[in-house]
Structures are given as structure tokens and as C-alpha cells.
Amino acid sequence: MHRPTSYSSTLAAEVRQRFTLTQLELGDYLGVTAEQVAHVEAGRHSFSAASNERL
Description:
Structural class: mainly alpha
Number of strands: 0
Low-confidence stretches: none
Distance between the termini: 32 Å
Order of helices and strands: HHHH
Number of domains: 1
Protein name: Helix-turn-helix transcriptional regulator
Radius of gyration: 11 Å
Largest sheet: none
């Protein structure tokens, strides 16, 4: 059974939703891991200044 994707209200999540990207795909684009993207979306961490600028 397919579970719909749930997005947070962070900029990273908004970008992922807009471009229908997975956390892995966004992480590859930003040069970070999918786990780091998940932590940012959950509000536990922030991206570096360089990743934020690229976002």
C-alpha cells in the first residue's frame, strides 16, 4: 500500500514538494545526505550557508 508523502513547512520541504524530489535527490543536489535533509526538515539541524544558498 502506497503511503502519501508528508512534507514539513521548511524551505527544503517546499522545494522538494515543488519539484517532486526525494530527500535523496535534494541531498545529492545540495551535496548532503538524505539523512541530513530529513534532520533539517524535522527542525533538528540547519543546512550550511553554502547549502542554503544553493537551495
